[in-house]
Amino acid sequence: MSLLAVLTVWEMNIFDLLRAAGPLLWVLVALSLFVVYLVAVRAQVLRKLASDPTLTFTRVHAALMQQDLPGAAREAARLATPAGNILRAGVDRAPAGQEAAISAMNEAMLLEDQRLYNGLSTLGTIAQIAPLLGLLGTVFGMVRSFLVFSSAANPTPAQLSTGISEALINTAGGLVVAIIAYFARNALRSRADRIALHAERAREVLPAWLTEMRLRQQGVLTGTPLVMYEFDANAPVKSISEAPARA
């Protein structure tokens, strides 16, 4: 059998399958297409936000140690990621005081969380309702089979198989859509969590950097910077209160 013949038979079987499954399968098909679209869009967004912030963090830290707030803001603006936006928000508000900088970073963190996790709840909802839609299609199919059985004196297997096919196809379709949406949501959430980890680390280290910058301006601290940035998610931020003051 030629490839064209195989494809023709396969195409006919697909259309027969969709026709036998009833209208609810079309709803599941639409949901599956929406899931593919949403996953592609969110994956593209997260890919752009996943830039390594280490170099920018180092430059921002170096600028702050030179008491150069405008330079630190420019360096932070180069990193168009949640971590860079949080750094920029804190540096921009630093002249108004430590509390103002922390408040600005907290507000920026809320906005970045919305951007990172946008669409994930939709995928979770689809993963929950797709099996229910499949189950509803199953009920419709079984009802159709029972109606055929009750209305015909001697129902044939072909008559009964229509409703049974609708039931099984919808069940399978709902499960397939739910599984795809579930795994896609978990994969995207895992990637968003890694990006959010950089942003959270930025919110932790910047107040310590600003405190050290002010102490250097006052002449209390000199020499090597005390609060260096090393991106280790599990490493605690060294508190400036632990640093020895100049006698």
From TrEMBL:
MotA/TolQ/ExbB proton channel domain segment(s): 81-199
Keyword NAD: no
Residue spans crossing the bilayer: 20-40, 125-147, 167-184
The keyword Transcription appears for this protein: no
Highest taxon, organism lineage: Bacteria
Compartmental location: Cell membrane; Membrane
Any Pfam family hit: MotA_ExbB
Any GO BP: protein import
Alphabetized UniProt keyword annotations: Cell membrane, Membrane, Protein transport, Transmembrane, Transmembrane helix, Transport
One GO cellular component term noted in the UniProt record for this chain: plasma membrane
Lipid bilayer topology: Multi-pass membrane protein
Chief place of localization: membrane
Sequence similarity: Belongs to the exbB/tolQ family.
Protein name in UniProt: Biopolymer transport protein
Upper classification of the organism: Bacteria, Thermotogati, Deinococcota, Deinococci, Deinococcales
